[in-house]
Amino acid sequence: MSTQGMILAGCDGDRTWRLQDYVARGGYSALRKIVADKTPQDNIIAELKASVLRGRGGAGFPTGLKWSFMPRSFPGDKYLACNSDEGEPGTFKDRDILRYNPHAVIEGMAIAAYAMGAARGYNYIHGEIFEIYQRFEEALAEAREAKLIGRNILGSDFSFELFAHHGYGAYICGEETALLESIEGKKGQPRFKPPFPASYGLYGKPTTINNTETFASVPFILNMGGEAFLNLGKPNNGGMKLFSVSGHVNRPGNYEIPLGTPFSELLEMAGGVRGGRKLKAVIPGGSSAPVLPADVIMGCTMDYDSISKAGSMLGSGAVIVMDETTCMVKALERLSYFYYEESCGQCTPCREGTGWLYKVVHRIEHGEGRPDDLDLLNSVTGNIMGRTICALGDAASMPVQSFIKHFASEFEYHIENKKCLVPPEVQHAGSNIYVSPSC
Amino acid sequence: MLEIEIDGQQVSVEDGSTVMDAAHQAGIYIPHFCYHKKLSIAANCRMCLVQVEKAPKPLPACATPVTAGMKVWTHSEAAVKAQKGVMEFLLINHPLDCPICDQGGECQLQDLAVGYGGVASRYQEEKRVVFNKNLGSLVSTDMTRCINCTRCVRFTVEIAGEMELGQAFRGEHAEIMPFIEKTVDSELSGNIIDLCPVGALTSKPFRFSARTWEMSRRRSVSPHDSLGANLIVQTKHDVVKRVLPLENEELNECWLSDKDRFSYEGLNSDERLTTPLIKQDGEWKAVDWQAALEFAASGLRGIAKDYGPAAIGALGSPHATVEELHLLQKLARGLGSGNVDFRLRQTDFRADAGRAGAPWLGMKVAETGELDRLLVVGSFLRKDHPLLAQRVRQATKRGLLVSVVGPNAEEWLLPVRARALVAPSALVDTLAQIVVALAAEKGVAIDERLSGFPAQAGDDARAIAASLASGRKVAVWLGNLAVQDQRAAELQLLANEIARLAGGTAGVIGEAANSVGGYLAGAVPSADGLDARQQIEQPRKAYVLLGAEPELDFADPAATVAALGGAQLVVALSAFVSPSLREVADVLLPVAPFAETSGTFVNAEGRAQSFVAVARPQGDTRPAWKVLRVLGNVLELAGFDYNDSEAVRDEALAGDIAARLDNRVDGVALSAVAAPAGALERVADVPIHFADPLVRRAPALQRTRDAAAPVARASRATLAALGLAGGERVRLAQGAARAELTIVADDKLADGCVRVAAAHPDTATLGALSGAISVERI
Amino acid sequence: MLSQESLQQIDREIAKYPPDQKQSAVMSALRIAQVEKGWLANETIEFVAGYLGMPAIAVYEVASFYNMYDLHPVGRHKITVCTNLPCALSGGVHVAEYLKEKLGIDFNETTPDGKFTLKEGECMGACGDAPVLLHNNHRMCSWMTREKIDQMLAELDGK
Ligand SMILES: Cc1cc2nc3c(=O)[nH]c(=O)nc-3n(C[C@H](O)[C@H](O)[C@H](O)COP(=O)(O)O)c2cc1C
Ligand code: SF4
Ligand code: FES
């Protein structure tokens, strides 16, 4: 495990997830200070605004601003939800945060609860990481025992109950309102907004949802000060961020680096392209982010603004690296299948459109493409984007549009020649996506 | 109020309105599928996308709240492009075989596809196939056509009150279904057929029997419960093919109960009586009308001459029209007899002497939505009055607190705040307790008529009183059980008193389509006449029977069959023949059911609703009002020269109806009779699909769960006291009357009671709907 | 219907939510029921519905929506392989192919002896450890190679 960074700094031992170890690393000092000083809620939110911490779950919304939306004098319960549903292909940072430093999340949530006056919180944990869910439960027990959560935290009159909710296999539950529905014991189908969760959230009560990494950053920000955090990164892109690097690199894994670090440095940290091959393309922010060709990404720094300028999104910070052996049609086919499989089925464009997209890409990959298929794909994605209840529709469309845009010749070759531009043996040698019979 | 601009039109709409509401107000149509004004907003179909100024993407009109100064274009290029895009998605997996779809011609998808669909499908992949589901005998499925708008799901949850359908699986595999092997058993289930915008849910009885454009549509009024649901009856070649709701926001809204919707099948039953019959020497003989009427007239004249006119009784169904009941009483009175009644299942008529007017709901049906407290006494509300129950259900979501008194506590699918579960014999005492508790809550004295009544308020009564006392708009409703109770008059008196103390209204829900109309038509006994019960207990020599079946429509089937069977002459006007009618009657006159006659029903709120025939009477059937008119002529009675049914109605309902509605009763004494210790009491529900002769003969309804053969029910404690285990066959006895049923444990009943349905062939041999009953293991 | 122990576990889950929000425990309840019973039969779903005071179809909606629930019997060992892009780039599909070959079954099939069921999974949030697979929903196996698969199967075969 990397020992650099912020949240994961020093998390290379065996038991770094234990309360004792966290405290030894300086953990819970921020919460203790707040509770002891009775820090005004506004000061905390101001500190967060100063830090320019942007949500780490994908949308990059400024966290301090989001917190300020919570109604102050709401009679009755307010809720917090932590989004650890991490299901965006390529993203695996929250799992490591929960695995190695769960108390940072707990402390961050407790501080958030204090700042927003929330009485209860849930951490929604991705279905497939049951062991992590169990570990988080243990961490919660430790924190409760130490009076860091629960009634009268650290002897004060501040109380906050925190529980873990375990998902069971649905990418869509990462969407914040689907996540709330899921906690309510329903299918994870996103809600139409407005009303937004800050006014109508969990059980109809004001609710703030943040990503695991967002919450985990909070104690560090309060300890070092918002300004210092901002300065770790670059203007408008405050702080450190975890990047999950996967695919064709020598050392896949999480790298917590300052925002604004050149992509080339990140690639180097990850050991460079596997087998010394040539970089072909990178999806810089999780599968929903538009793919960028090698030359474009090599000119980027890893922060919201730079990646956005290049035509993609920093998203969750999941960097999927593809080398020259990758067939882009096949890569897109797999991603399209994912969105088709994971559409919640609620709204028409996504329910019907994701299947259509997959079927057409599948056809192209299997040598049955038609000359006007690329136009069709562009048109269908156009009819999905911006017309759905949640952003999954966009998420399913952006890969299609960007793959076609940047790798049109590969698609055209496929349609014309009924086979991959990248010869099967090359694909075999490099990428390990299966090679379909038609190739 | 907010000012917005929609398609260039300025509209001012209420805060909290949606763009869809605003468009509706401006008379602008926005295409939609999932949106329905009575259901929660799902915003899932995306058909209603519109362009909104400054919004980066099209927004769904159904879910987008209006904001001040908002500018909306519903048919701009951008809006139409979005709508067309959605339409294309809806059609890719939808079969394009409208000609073989039962929804063809009345399909929202088909209609909109014409305007918004592309020319040729760009979708060349295989279409999705979804297996059909068995939802029961009323709703047919063709699930491949489903567009997942979830209207049906939301209906079951929100309107019917029980989630019987869901959307299982996800993504493209999402499917609407009931839980495995379950059917949809709601008494309101047919509404999902109307709600379904495509041909996924269609009417099973109607399936493929006609196309919508081949049928004529006429308005009518439901002849069943006292709500007076408005109907559109569709006929083809004079046969009723289908019944749909005619929207009336004040009554049925856009809904119908399954009974209202599917009972029309009974119109075409094999048991329709289509020619006049007379019995001679024990043999039935078809005759022409002239002969039949003369036979009846001379018979009646003979009885009047031989035994005096008081030997004649006249009994009409509360499902008969105002015109029919008016002429029935006029006929009896013309013959000199004051023995007329239409309250066939009632047993206590003590209130008649002091009634201030016709008992009615005491309020408008639509005012249910404004109530904040409601006490329902003695009712099977959900099955007896499905749409009224639905209104109560909706009102509870807006804060209405419902209290219930009665021997039954079956599920109404609405929250009950407080309940007194008591045997029928304790109803009066329980209401008296509520009066006492309420008077204490309000700090006022009790009406002198009630003073001395030894009521010590128990916990349940106090809880109910406390709830009523805190209300702003309160109602007390007496249900069918209360009206049929042996001490109905006292219940009425007490209900009035509770309402008075709570500052609310007391009302009678009314059993049948014309429970109010019968009073207005004068179909109640004269001062010296006999009421329905007396006419049976003191058998007459002759009866004129209108639209009722002796063993199913009366308070005491065994006694009724005996009384009618022993009479010298029974003239029965009926739409149907049945073995019991053949047995007791001497003349059978085929009269038209509601669809084949004009007439009027006055519903629970006192609203007179007239309708005309939607089909020609079958065979030699004649409208009953005409038959009675001619019979009056043959008998040479005065005042029987009407040109049309309107003239009869105008005579019957002359004057201000509202002024004739009044629930007050005078001169009823409260008595403190204790129930005989240890005696079992019968509680009789009238099952929803057996309540009247028409619905009994509707085959699809008879195959629903609601029409399952009756069992006897008793609480576990009662069963234990009887030494019985649930599931055993028992013999039930009321005096000499007997029936055999299976008995089951049902803790939704007060102890000491046995619930045995009435109006069903299996229990028709029993006696009174209330009172003592005994049970023994066979 | 469910063991005392399972019911206790479900009760612990119910306690996490406000008293009038028992339904929130449905996902855990189904998971616990599935662990005990191996899969979710209709009776099990109905039981859970009754236990939580929910309509059966509402529970079925949940059970059919989340793909880790099994609405049909599965083998004693359910192996779910992630074949999503990041994993596929690092051999995820080869792992699946190898398992198919070794077990003689395709995705969504169970070996005739009822021991193994193979499923294709979506992203498990562990792409850095690719190829990954999930054993019986609850145990993640990382960096799978042929050797590790052989070893795993041999181990499970004995159980
Ligand atoms: C389809 C979809 C999937 C998402 N998945 C995740 C996820 O797995 N984790 C996450 O934190 N946010 C996810 N999001 C974003 C959340 O909706 C939400 O913006 C985020 O949790 C807010 O937290 P943040 O402001 O701290 O980023 C997803 C959004 C969509 C539309
Ligand atoms: S966009 Fe897809 S995932 Fe989102 S609500 Fe619509 S159907 Fe569900
Ligand atoms: S009617 Fe608005 S989305 Fe369906």
UniProtKB/TrEMBL annotation, chain B:
Residue span, 4Fe-4S His(Cys)3-ligated-type domain: 78-117
Entry's cofactor comment: Binds 1 [2Fe-2S] cluster per subunit.
One GO BP annotation of this record: ATP synthesis coupled electron transport
Stretches assigned to the 4Fe-4S Mo/W bis-MGD-type domain: 215-271
Enzyme class: translocase
The enzyme's E.C. designation: 7.1.1.-
Molecular-function annotations in GO: 2 iron, 2 sulfur cluster binding; 4 iron, 4 sulfur cluster binding; metal ion binding; NADH dehydrogenase (ubiquinone) activity; oxidoreductase activity, acting on NAD(P)H; quinone binding
Keyword set includes Methyltransferase: no
Database matches in Gene3D superfamilies: 3.10.20.740, 3.30.70.20, 3.40.50.740, Dimethylsulfoxide Reductase, domain 2 (3.40.228.10)
Keywords, in A-Z order: 2Fe-2S, 4Fe-4S, Iron, Iron-sulfur, Metal-binding, NAD, Oxidoreductase, Quinone, Translocase
Required cofactor names: [2Fe-2S] cluster; [4Fe-4S] cluster
Pfam annotation, one family: NADH-G_4Fe-4S_3
A cellular-component GO term for this protein: membrane
Domain 2Fe-2S ferredoxin-type: from-to ranges: 1-78
Listed SUPFAM superfamilies: 2Fe-2S ferredoxin-like, 4Fe-4S ferredoxins, Formate dehydrogenase/DMSO reductase, domains 1-3
Record field: catalytic activity: a quinone + NADH + 5 H(+)(in) = a quinol + NAD(+) + 4 H(+)(out)
Function, as annotated: NDH-1 shuttles electrons from NADH, via FMN and iron-sulfur (Fe-S) centers, to quinones in the respiratory chain. Couples the redox reaction to proton translocation (for every two electrons transferred, four hydrogen ions are translocated across the cytoplasmic membrane), and thus conserves the redox energy in a proton gradient.
PANTHER family cross-referenced by the UniProt entry: NADH-UBIQUINONE OXIDOREDUCTASE 75 KDA SUBUNIT, MITOCHONDRIAL, RESPIRATORY NITRATE REDUCTASE
Protein name according to UniProt: NADH-quinone oxidoreductase
Annotated organism of origin: Pseudothauera rhizosphaerae
From TrEMBL, chain C:
Residues holding [2Fe-2S] cluster: C82, C87, C123, C127
Molecular function as annotated in GO: 2 iron, 2 sulfur cluster binding; metal ion binding; NADH dehydrogenase activity
Gene3D superfamilies registered for this protein in UniProt: Glutaredoxin, NADH-quinone oxidoreductase subunit E
Keywords of the record: 2Fe-2S, Iron, Iron-sulfur, Metal-binding, Oxidoreductase
Pfam families xref list: 2Fe-2S_thioredx
Major enzyme class: oxidoreductase
Catalysis performed (reactions): a quinone + NADH + 5 H(+)(in) = a quinol + NAD(+) + 4 H(+)(out)
Cofactor note: Binds 1 [2Fe-2S] cluster.
SUPFAM superfamilies recorded: Thioredoxin-like
Cofactor(s) the protein needs: [2Fe-2S] cluster
UniProt-listed Enzyme Commission number(s): 1.6.5.11
Family of this protein: Belongs to the complex I 24 kDa subunit family.
Protein name from the UniProt record: NADH-quinone oxidoreductase subunit NuoE
Organism: Pseudothauera rhizosphaerae
Gene: nuoE
